[in-house]
Amino acid sequence: MSDTFGGGPTPPIGPQVGDGDSREKALRQQSGSPDAGGEERGENAIELKEVEGLSQGRIVFKRFIRHKGAMISLAILILVVILAFSSIGIEVGFGALKVSVPGWWMWNYVEITPIVNGAAPTLSLIPEWLGGAGISFGAHPFGQDEIGHDAFARVMRGTQQSLMITVVIGVVGTVIGVAVGSVAGYFRGRIDAILMRLTDMIIIIPLILLTAIVGKTFQNLGSFVFALVIGAFIWTGLARLVRGEVLGLREREFVDAARVAGASDARIIFRHILPNAVGVIIVSTTLTMASAILLETALSYLGFGVKFPDVSLGTLISEYQTAFNTRPWLFWWPGTFIIIVALTINFIGDGLRDAFDPRQRRGLNRKAKNAQAADREQPTASETAVGASA
Amino acid sequence: MATFLTRRLLASFLVLFAASFVVYVLTCYSGDPLAELRQSNARNKAQLIEAKIRAQNLDVPPVLRYFLWLGGILRVFVGAFTLGTSAKGQPVTQLLSAAMGSTLQLVTTATLIAIVVGVGIGITTALRQYTSYDYGVTFISFLFFSLPIFWLAVMLKQYLAIGFNDFLANPQIPPTVIVVASIVAGLVWLAIIGGNAKRRLVTFTVAAASTAMVLLFFSVTNWFASPVMGPVVVLILGIGTAYLVTVLSTGISNRKSLFTALSVVGGLLVAYYPLQYAFAFANPPLVIGIAVVIIGLGVAVGFLWGGPDRAQSARTGAITAGLVYGLILIDRFMQSWTIYTSYVGGRPIATISSQTPDLQGSFWVEGLDSFTHLVLPTAALLLASLAGYTRYSRASLLDVLNQDYIRTARAKGLTERTVVMRHAFRNALIPITTIVAFDFGAVIGGAIITERVFGWSGMGALFNTALSETDVNSLMAVFLVTGISAIVFNLIADFTYSALDPRIRVTA
Question: B78: which DSSP letter?
């Protein structure tokens, strides 16, 4: 009934979970008629479901749902992703194999449009009944730059690129980090020493220095390759964390049991050890992705990241920073989107960290604490009654 | 100890050399150093290219060129240390020494302020866990964590620099701002100090009223145009500092300690005018020398007052002495403010470069110059570090507060102040030392961006130009400085860790 998420058996919380079948059979024998047995079975099924043990995944999920900040951030992030990818459509492919999916926005990010409203944003949010100009988006809600590009389309394109790069960096970094960390932690000895020296070598170089150098080398090959290369250097923190976890987990009994049963090293790592470290890995991945978007935009701002004609939020800010006095809107919107993506990913990571932490307890604020203290001091009427009668 | 040290250093330097090899080769392949020359239309293009190839050994493959560069470094043992020449032919050591000064200034200031303020805020949020103050600070620190530095830097340039300079032209504070600021200040202090309803009301009123009075005073007297503190204000602030330090350090009930602090303040006030005379000859060694003497005197006063534990009074005396001396220094700097403003044409907060060119002034004017040039880049750099320190110190203190020995201390009947300051605080500081070492690398990275935005010509700018022109030698110099500082900081962090935590000793 309950799937165990690696590790050991789920601790039973009531009647033995796995014994459902035998209990049903016994009850059916007792009651006699098949109908009565069916009813009993239904009731038992409900009763068993109430005390059913939860898998780690479900526990974490329930706790995550309760974290309001993380849920709101998740909703906002999904909205931003949908907006970015649907508004101006997606264009993938190199050269001949281009796949283009059109979006619902009227301009794309390279079109030059006639200047409207003095290139200022046509977005107005104050409704008419409050004295504003009414809620409307207009033709250029984020304004235009001096040439006539639509800023909204460019910001959306930049968000697409930055999001794609972030995800690729996260995935690549996680894969390499988990691989290096688990191998180093599991095998120890010489392999551990070599891998950790290698990791130290990469850690000693400040990340932005290293990524700037490799970013400049590979920026001509497109954003995807750029993301792959950055991901290849960002895994060091995760590797250390995973190594720490694996060093602890490999001493547990279930690893011995698996080895005695004849499991190969790879199987032990992937099937037994890593699923127990998954909390640390997921949290670290989300936090890496949050810092990855900041890193990528910083590199693009410096000129060592995404290159013209490709658009990234960082290149937009670099392009428009001198226009801050005359056209501040060009500067506000890319920055806002960077902040939104980074902030939401950070909150989600924090929510996940709280959800995975077994020692986390929800604290009470002052009012609730006082109520609890008051409850303790004045036993309820029923308790005194029971005490008196006993 | 010595074996540990040598072994650690050896291992670290080996790692550094391996890393430098990787960086060298990667940089060589990152671009073409001759790209600019190839596109130029000079008549002797071929000779220029030839000369450059010879000067920088560009015909040697990168893997072997690394050893040529390494040879230059190892010649330090023969006294002919060289880091090579830059793309433009200057010796890199010259470029580096010029650049290192300003970057180190920036980085150390930002890190110090981030640590002090971050740890302070983290500790107060940990003590007030789950209140709205805690949630507010957590949200704000998340926000700062997610801010792109370059975006923030341009924002600061606009609002802090240009806005403040415009404000200085007519430094009146509008009444709405005063009201809002007082209410906000009252709310913040209310949240930090906490307590029952009556205490909160009192805190709120006092904080709001004093903020309002101070702001009104600033507005009415055009204080920002010509700031002045004077001995009276120094005295009042000094007494306040004395009380604050005593409360935190030993508790108000320790009368000897309180009297130490107050007498230190009194003594410094008496020395106010003699100090002003001494400041006329100020230069950095003199100022620091006076600081050391004054702190020593603070310790001596503490010993003289005695009390149940002389070391405690001495500590209170030393801290108060240092802080009030700082107030006197700030007062002296303020006296030079109008002179400085006249030098820079009424717009003191600078947005570009690390110093005003051709500024010849006294120690105080030049100090103000450094300060106004440091304000913006430091603010930009420190916000992200601040968020990190707040979160870590909060988590660390929460961990410590859940320990058994804290419960024992409370059960023994110690006041909350003693439990927190004497037991929890010190133990919570231990993990932070390790973070400082790691944060340093991040701050150097931030400096690269900040120097680009603010036009500083420090190591970050050196790195930027070096990478754009594929100037390997300059880039390697920057990396070497960063790498060596990272090793040094890691070592310091390890030693501090073992010094603070008696369970960990520096052993092999």
Answer: G
Partner-chain residue, chosen from B22, B23, B464, that has the shortest CB–CB distance to A302: B464
Q: What is the length of chain A? A: 390
- ipTM comes to 0.82
Neighbours of B127 (CB within 10 A): 19
What pTM did the predictor assign?
0.81
Q: How many CA atoms lie within 13 A of B183 on its CB side?
A: 5
Using an 8 Å Cβ cutoff, are B450 and B377 in contact?
yes
Using the structure block, give the residue that is written with the tokens 């004077």. B230
Categorize the per-residue pLDDT at A14 as very low, low, confident or very high, splitting at 50, 70 and 90. very low
Residue B455 region by backbone torsions, left for phi larger than 0, else alpha for psi between -120 and 50, else beta:
left
| Binary contact (A317, B151; C-beta < 8 A) | yes
- Closest chain B C-alpha to A359 CA, distance in angstroms: 11
Distance between alpha carbon B504 and the CA centroid of its chain, in Å?
A: 28
Residue B367's identity, in one-letter code, is: G
3-state secondary structure of A179: helix
Distance from CA of B483 to the nearest CA of A (A): 6
B19, B146, B475: residue with CB nearest A342 = B146
Closest CA to A349 of A293, A297, A282: A282
Give the contacts of B441 (CB within 8 A, at least 6 positions apart): A206, A207, B482, B486
* Contacts across the A-B interface (CB distance below 8 Å): 126
Q: For residue A144, with 0-12 CB atoms within 10 Å meaning exposed, 13-18 middle and 19 or more buried, which class applies?
A: buried
Identity of residue A188: R
- Nearby residues of A59 by Cβ (< 8 Å), 6 or more positions away: none
- Residue with token string 């609002």: B159
Check: CB of residue B60 under 8 Å from CB of residue B427: no
Q: In which residue are the tokens 């951030």 written?
A: A73
CB contact under 8 A, B30 and A342: no
On the question of pLDDT at A282 being above 70, the answer is yes
CA distance A221 to chain B (A): 13
The continuous run of DSSP H or E covering A66 comes out as helix A56-66
Nearest to A152 by CA among A160, A163, A144, A162: A144
Mean pLDDT, residues B243-264:
86
Please identify which residue in the block is written with the tokens 């290369």: A229
pLDDT-based confidence at A280, cuts 50/70/90? Answer: confident
Q: Residue A15: which pLDDT band, with cuts at 50, 70 and 90?
A: very low
